[in-house]
Amino acid sequence: MIVLSVDTAHAACSACVFDTELDRALSLVSESMQRGHAERLTDMVAETVASAGVSYSDIDRLAACSGPGTFTGVRIGLAFVRGLALVLKVPAVGITTFSALAARCLDTSAGQDVWVLQDARRGEVFLQGFGSDGDPVHPASVLSVSGAGNLLREKTGLAVGSATRLVDLPAGVTVSEVSGIPDVAVIARLAGQVADTTTPAVPFYLRAPDAKAQAQQVRHHESPLSVEQVGAEFANILAVIHAPCFEDAWDNEAMSALLKTPGSTALLATQNRNGESLPCGFVLLRAAADELEVLTLAVLPQNRRRGVARALMRALRQHAEKTGTRRIFIEYAQNNLAAHALYKEAGYTQNGVRLNYYKSPDGTLCDAITASLSLHDGDQSHCQPTRDRL
After folding, report:
1. pLDDT for the residue numbered 273
2. pTM score, whole prediction
3. Which of 97, 149, 239, 390 could make an SS bond with 338 (beta carbons 3.0 to 4.6 A apart)?
4. Domains contained in the chain, CATH given
């Protein structure tokens, strides 16, 4: 079995192509970084696949680290493998940080219990214990630093992870020399051992996230893109793209229901990479008479600043002109500077403000800007709500 694994949940961006029959990595690339995982991941995966001497059609399974880790980083990796899994029609699984670190420890020091301790900040620790056979002996938990020390007081074995320096370890627990960042090859190996691949690869959260999406840092050249009109049969793919873009992303059921509404359709952008068409963004539309409303626009984080949003805007206008649309309505958060620049460049004119329309998870309110594009003269109307992540 050939497994492609990625890890963007920690202070590194990593990808690996692993052959389970040979029990070794065919190719592995890993770079330390605190931010910029989304921008680097797509190219890194392409490099890793090419270096392994395989094609995407050779891949039997996909895997990503599901956390605990940085909130945005976890979602970037999982969104990538889930989207690619839909295209390649292979399973995608999530492997926890706990399992990956414990397995790596047992590779180097068999016969001991392993205690994985990850820094959860706020004076807390993420903890899970594993026996010498690799099976859990203590459930994944969030504990205070002192509480973790108390739990380990009578324990023996190895400790691994970013919080080993924080916890007062007993004499019977030794700090392992294994890195606190999971080995992406171990993630691939564990993924190949998963018997039930029907469970979706989802983030492994032990508490509610409190991180913000990272800012874009690197500008990339545009990649070959194509845009096609799709319907409810593509709801799964659109939901996967939507997931890393919004805190309250629309799931498959909601996406399907929207697409089945009369007048609704979606324009899906795909990126041509090594002969494969990989979904990377979409815009969801709803028509009423000769007007068109944009319900949401989303581009996968790793594909932003590659011309995807512009391609979708061009396709949107072409679709509107073909269907006799008189005016297109769109809306975006006032603090979304990327959306403002995109729509201004596309010719949209601001014609309204909705005060305190958007509410972030921390309760902060933000105004909404309503804008429109007239395709024919003599048109006045009000704007409708939309959502966009560029």
Report:
1. 66
2. 0.59
3. 390
4. 2-98+181-193 (3.30.420.40), 110-175 (3.30.420.40), 225-389 (3.40.630.30)
